[in-house]
Amino acid sequence: MATFSLPAKDVDEWNLNPTVTYRHVLSQSTGVHNPLRTIGLCDLDCFYAQCEQRRLGIDPALPIVVLQWDMLIAVNYPAREFGIKRMTKLPDAKKMCPNLVVVHVATYKDGESEPKYHPDPNNKTHKVSLDLYRRESNKILNVFKTTLPTAEIEKASIDESFVDFTRPIQQILLERYPELASPPPDSPLNLDTPLPPPPARLEWHKSSVWVPVNPEAEKGTESSEGPQQEQDSTPATWHDVALSIAAELLDNTRREIRETLGYTTSAGIARNKFLAKLVASYKKPNSQSVLRNAAIPNYLRPLPFQKIRFLGGKLGTILAEEYEAKTVGELLYIDLAEMQRKFGPESLWVYQVFRGIDIGEVKEKPPVNKSMLASKNLPKPIRQDGDVLQWVRVLCSELAVRLLEARETGTVWPKTIALHTKQAGDSASKSKQTPFPFVRDLTGDVIVAAVMKLWKELHTSDAERAANPNVPKMKIINIAVSFNGVETLEQGQRNIAGFFGGPASKGASSSKLIAQEKKSHEDDSNASPLTYKCPTCSKVLSVLSVEGDDEDTRAARLEAVKAEHEDFHFAQRLSRQETIKLGAGSGKRRISPARRGPPSKKRKEPGIESFFKKK
Ligand code: TTP
Ligand code: CA
Ligand code: CA
Q: Does residue 562 fall inside a structural domain?
């Protein structure tokens, strides 16, 4: 891969060295277009494996894998040295590494009120518990929040978080370079005056890995001075100063996570979320990689574009076939007009990603109105009323544990409880929800009682079914129970907390509080985040989660359903407007203006618009 020097036009197109003004240092409202914007993504190394290692007090140098039934779901780095991967079969893994430590995730079993490490868990009778990992994940998130109080933090999955460092960077810049606090008094542009040149020599944060600006030139110069020299050969910008500050801050947070909780992480730092996530895997484990703007082109060009998230599927294949290309660099000559003509207006996103542009914001997820869902894909379908209680009890124990645990960080209570069941052959699940009353002592049994009531309302009883041959046979293949609208109670509602453990507060009339809460349940028409009402056609979409999902995965699942539904509208719009070319597989498929109305429900193709969905 040859190294590219960057002609002026290119620098401009990639926008690698945008002008930074006083306003960018002083204003908190410049948002995603602030040229000082700096984002970090921090991901736990082999997360579940580290959790189990810590729990068992095993030496981190020993090879360990975490199992879910017979699948490896996490492999630690010492085990990876034996060639073991997530896809490896357990017997093969044991052959590759006879001393391998194998831990099965904890499971819930009917009749037990908490998850256990059962010696012989079985998908037919047990349900996986991710409680340990959720708990550790929350502790890690708290370290982010306490060590980076002024940064915006977004939990992106059970083991990773994005951090927008722009605000703390602004503060530190003003401390270190007080001359940036105001433009020169005679400057006509006032706050829009460009900053003076950045410091001549920058201390590139030492324990970070700086992606080389010219990888070819750096080859063979792997001395301890190598990276420093290499970085110095491209003059530092104010954004590089910002990156160095973020590198120090994130390094501190990662050290805190390591020292207080015992977990190693890998991190990426760059000008946006897309690049931060990409560069986080530049070097793993226990590493932090930084991508300067100047290093973006040579980093992206040789990258196989099908490895980029959202380009791993059909659109990636279409692009690869259409242009006989593999790398980002090979597609850079396609101009925006051509791309949009061929792939629709939304392909702007692809065009931008190839140039390292991403305007996605780092947004803290609101702590309120969350849902908790326990779900089980049934190894043996439920065919009659008598089969259901066993699974309801398992699911309710899990929810009880999770709700009580959530209370350790605040007084939370769900507004409603819902039962979801999926009949074999049905595309959607059936759901029913009801307000969840306050109780003094929360146990699995209280939840079971509420759910069994919902079951009776949702399903024809065995007796009725026997009496009426027209009622279809029951064959339920997934059952789930969710708490929806889980909220931290406001100050005024705090007395309700007494219902959990201690005696109820004397100051408040409990029945009045319950009545108020009930009313607010009834008022809340969109309590369940598992459903979505399409603003275009008012259709209500719902998702049923699968076992092992965490809340983020479920949210992603709902997003996918939404995206697919939006595709349907998109396809409808297209069929009215224009003919687009879709080079799918062997031939080209055309959506012609003649094709009107909704596509068949059985449509298997992934939707068009989802190709261009940003996140
Ligand atoms: P990842 O971050 O994808 O992987 P990892 O943390 O195990 O390893 P790495 O060091 O490469 O980041 O996933 C985080 C956890 O999520 C992982 O430890 C186990 C769980 N997980 C699954 O249960 N199933 C899956 O298919 C994946 C990808 C992850
Ligand atoms: Ca990870
Ligand atoms: Ca991850």
A: no
Distance CA 436, CA 460 (A): 23
List, for residues 124-170, the tens digit of each pLDDT value.
Answer: 899 999 999 999 999 999 999 999 999 999 999 999 999 999 999 99
Contact yes or no for 474/383 (Cβ under 8 A): yes
Ligand nearest to the CA of 72: 1
Whether residue 140 contacts residue 262, with contact meaning beta carbons closer than 8 Å, is answered with: no
| Averaged confidence pLDDT in the chain | 80
356 exposed, middle or buried (CB, 10 Å; 0-12, 13-18, 19+)? buried
Domain-embedded: residue 169 = yes
Question: Nearest ligand, CA of residue 553?
Answer: 1
Do residues 41 and 268 make contact, with C-beta atoms less than 8 angstroms apart? yes
**Cα–Cα distance, 243 to 255 (Å, whole number):** 18
249, 384: one domain: no
Nearest to 613 by CA among 310, 251, 252, 205: 310
Q: Which two tokens stand for residue 452?
A: 């069994």
Q: How far apart are CA 230 and CA 222, in angstroms?
A: 10
Ligand 1 binding site (Cβ under 6 Å of any ligand atom): 43-48, 73-74, 158-159, 284-285, 548
Q: Which residues have a beta carbon within 5 Å of ligand 2, which is an ion?
A: 43-44, 47, 159
**What's the rounded Cα separation, in Å, for the pair 329 and 60?**
40
Which is nearest to 508 in space by CA: 403, 438, 555, 607?
A: 438
Q: Give the tens place of pLDDT for each residue, 182-208.
A: 999 999 999 999 999 999 889 999 999
CATH number at residue 352: 1.10.150.20
76/516: higher pLDDT: 76
How many domains, the chain? Answer: 4
Are 164 and 39 within 8 A, CB to CB?
A: yes
Q: How far apart are CA 239 and CA 571, in angstroms?
A: 41
Nearest to 123 by CA among 113, 109, 144: 109
Indicate which residue's Cα is closest to atom 4 of ligand 1: 46
From the CA atom positions of the chain, what is the Rg in Å?
Answer: 27
Hey, whose CA ends up nearest to atom 29 of ligand 1? 73
Q: Are residues 338 and 278 in the same domain?
A: no
Please list the residues that pair with 531 across neighbouring strands. Answer: 542
Q: In this structure, what CATH number is given to the domain that contains residue 185?
A: 3.30.70
**Which of 130, 156, 190 is the endpoint of a domain?**
130
Structural contact between residues 489 and 411, judged by C-beta atoms closer than 8 angstroms: yes
Phi, psi dihedrals of residue 74, rounded to the nearest 5°: -150, 140
- 82, 114, 130 — which closes off a domain? 130
DSSP 197: P
Q: How far is the CA of 284 from the centre of ligand 2 (A)?
A: 10
Which numbered ligand comes closest to the C-alpha of 546?
1
Q: Which of 43, 84, 85, 136 to mutate for ligand 1's pocket (most ligand atoms within 8 Å of CB)?
A: 43
Q: Helices marked H in 224-272 — which ranges? A: 226-232, 238-256
Q: Which residue segment(s) compose the domain that 77 sits in? A: 47-130
The helix-helix angle for 131-147 and 388-406 (nearest 10°) equals: 20
3-class secondary-structure state, position 312: coil
